[in-house]
Amino acid sequence: MITSPSSLRRSERSRRATLDAALELCTEKGYGRVTVEAIAARAGVSKKTIYRWWPSKGAVLLEAFTEALVGATPFVDTGDIAADLRTHINGAVRLMSTAPYGPAYAGILSEMHHDDDLAAAVRDQLVGPRVEGAVARLRGAQEQGQIPETADLPLAVEMLYGPVYYRHVLRKPAQDEATVASLVAHVLRSLGAGE
């Protein structure tokens, strides 16, 4: 007797196919030329299915980018905050410097200036949780005595991520590992780490 896969599995396959199709099309055509219709056709799902799960193509690509970023930039704790931050920031730089993720995220950042719902989703689904994770990792370093208790951790996160996004948004060359190491060292010094 042949049994059909559960609707949950079928939904996950469709979700994954949709995310992959959106990323592939973004690489091939550029963010601006991707449509929900094209994503649906490439993924083998209906437009109705996509709109049931996401309100726009930006939301589809945001989910795909967020999943990739979370996987590429874990907040590890090896006991060495400088090494952990270098690993984390280098992971983000690599992801944003390669197709399909870099072009997809550049398109999302551009579109969110004209789409308040997408802007809110970027803040709620991507930026907010990543900032919380970074602050938590820095707080762990504080508890280990690597960063002074008086350090402004949210500001430190902005100092770490700001240069990465600045280069990405302005389409400047991405930082290399030496530049990331210098950035991390500078931010830690500004916090009074190691004093």
TrEMBL record:
PROSITE patterns: HTH_TETR_2
Keyword tRNA-binding among UniProt keywords: no
Domain of life: Bacteria
A Pfam cross-reference name: TetR_C_11
TM helices/strands, residue ranges: none
HTH tetR-type domain ranges (all copies): 12-72
Keywords: DNA-binding, Transcription, Transcription regulation
UniProt DNA-binding residue ranges: 35-54
Keyword Nucleus tagged: no
InterPro entries: Homeodomain-like_sf (IPR009057), HTH-type_TetR-like_transc_reg (IPR050109), HTH_TetR (IPR001647), Tet_transcr_reg_TetR-rel_C_sf (IPR036271), TetR_C (IPR011075)
UniProt name for this protein: AcrR family transcriptional regulator
Organism (species): Streptomyces clavifer
Upper taxonomic lineage: Bacteria, Bacillati, Actinomycetota, Actinomycetes, Kitasatosporales
